[in-house]
Specification:
Length: 247
């Protein structure tokens, strides 16, 4: 193993509160990147020196070395930064599914999300930018807000606002401008509530998409969207890499 991050879902699995639980005894960690050292004689898709990430959840990446079946790993390019590779299989895949699974978005459409500086939020910004989709990004106020705004804008954000700014009357102009170019979609309850106060979506209400099981509670079954408090909850992170087509 070259690197493995700590995500809230990893802690939840250890606590036993997550929807996906590994049989005990288990090693923690759902994502990370490793370098192949040796392969069995029947392995065809991987060779020593390849970089690999888990193909699903519960592999147990918080370890120095491991032996895994070939189908549990996905090969990734070894010329990308190691920290990017280590954080590739959970948050970016979740962001992709949020943008692709629930609505058909086209270039010029807009989405609004809160917690925009989270791992998922930053991935939403970058994927949306590459797809020609505009983003309105809500963050909490903080002393270093200008630096955070600069960083998110550098990733491709179109607007970065605080929760307090979201409720100001002048925000109507931003929302109206986005509505003229497609659908306004909110990721997270707070973002949706604030947006819906400022704009009327003709014909239907904006759906709420939620990816944070820590805040709102886990989905009831792995790999399937679930209804929770009126919100669509993408399953996370079971099978995320496979569903995002990284293989």
């Amino acid at each position: 193993m070259l690197a493995a991050p700590i995500n809230p879902a990893d802690i939840n699995m250890i606590q036993g509160t997550y929807a996906i639980l590994s049989p005990l005894p288990a090693v923690g960690g759902n994502e990370g990147v490793g370098e192949v050292l040796e392969v069995g004689r029947r392995v065809t898709a991987l060779k020593p020196g390849d970089w690999v990430i888990p193909a699903g959840a519960g592999v147990g990446t918080w370890r120095t070395q491991g032996v895994f079946p070939e189908e549990m790993l996905l090969k990734v390019p070894s010329d990308i930064p190691v920290l990017c590779a280590a954080t590739l299989s959970v948050n970016p895949c979740t962001a992709y599914r949020m943008l692709a699974d629930f609505e058909t978005l086209a270039p010029g459409d807009s989405v609004i999300q809160n917690a925009a500086n989270s791992g998922v939020g930053q991935a939403v910004i970058q994927i949306a930018k590459a797809s020609g989709i505009k983003t309105i990004n809500v963050v909490r106020d903080r002393p270093d807000l200008p630096k955070l705004v600069e960083r998110l804008m550098a990733l491709g954000a179109d607007h970065v606002i605080t929760e307090e700014m979201l409720r100001k009357p002048e925000m109507k102009d931003i929302f109206k401008a986005q509505r003229d170019h497609g659908h306004l979609r909110g990721y997270g309850k707070a973002a949706c509530d604030g947006a819906c106060e400022r704009i009327h979506l003709s014909g239907r209400a904006a759906p709420r998409l939620l990816d944070d099981p820590v805040e709102e509670g886990p989905c009831t079954g792995p790999g399937e969207p679930d209804q929770h408090d009126g919100c669509l909850v993408p399953a996370h992170p079971e099978g995320a890499a496979h569903r995002a087509g990284l293989h």
